[in-house]
Amino acid sequence: MWRNDKKHLPGGGLSSGMILRFGSFLACLATTAEPALAQTPNPLLPRNLSPWGMFLSADIVVKAVMIGLAFASLVTWTVWLAKTIELRRAKTLGRRRLKLLESGGTLSEAVRACDGKRDAVAQLILSTAREAELSDGIIDDGFRERVALRLERVEAAMTRQVSRGIGILATIGATAPFVGLFGTVWGIMNSFIGISESHTTNLAVVAPGIAEALLATAFGLVAAIPAVVIYNHLARVISGYRALLGDASAQLVLMISRGHASRVSALPRAAE
Questions:
Q1: Between helices 167-198 and 60-102, what is the axis angle to 10°?
Q2: What is the mean pLDDT of residues 88-110?
């Protein structure tokens, strides 16, 4: 039958024409099957691996961790902005008052310049004037000790006032990495549970959970690193501000040592 159409190859094999036609048929099958395979979605593969997509597909516990860390990061930058404005204003007023004290004026002149003011150096001046008023202008060693105690109290109070709120930065910097690690552990645990339930070791099963876990770790680092840096920066600025208050206190002690407090009377009470 085949001899009527095609010649046999030696040894009884198929002819070259049939082999070519069979190869063409296989090529056509491969060409038509590839688009179908490419268009068939794999239910195991995640459809969206963007940060937002991973957040939406994350477990409720991992979502709560990410939201908490995002809120902590917002608190960090809010504290930074508020404290930067407060400290810059306080240091500007403090330098202005310190120049007034260094100009060689009297305590009465300094009190009149600070009347009604509530900044730290003004409180130091008013506290010194109040002690001079209570001492009836008697300048002795006991008076200087009492003034030094008053100034120390005011310095500590003003330092506490400008330091309020920065303790939360230390808390965020210390705990955020561990909170992110908790989200990481929870996500990896869910990944292993998914492997157990699907009875497969396919990477597509474990990949989404690992990605969510790593995203939680990233949130923890994003919250912790700025908090630590900002806390250290604000601590240095507050130390400089306290040194400024110390300079103002030293100028006031020098002023009363020259006898400029002997005629201070009817002074406004300093808020302590």
A1: 170
A2: 84
Q: How far is CA 209 from CA 31, 43, 61, in A?
A: 36, 15, 12
- Terminal CA-to-CA distance of the chain, rounded, Å? 119
Eight-class DSSP state of 92: H
Closest CA to 51 of 176, 212, 178: 212
- Report d(CA 249, CA 229) in Å as an integer: 31
pLDDT tens across 8-54, in order?
Answer: 444 444 455 555 554 554 455 445 444 443 344 444 444 555 666 66
pLDDT at 178: 93
Helix (H, G, I), strand (E, B) or coil at 139: coil
State the burial class of residue 163 (Cβ atoms within 10 Å of its Cβ: 0-12, 13-18, 19+). middle
- In the chain, where the domains are located: 2-39, 51-257
Of 217, 222, 235, 216, nearest to 74 (Cα)? Answer: 222
DSSP of 49-82: -SHHHHHHHS-HHHHHHHHHHHHHHHHHHHHHHH
* 4 CB-near residues (< 8 Å, 6+ apart): none
Contact 100, 113 (CB under 8 A): yes
> Which amino acid type is present at position 131?
E
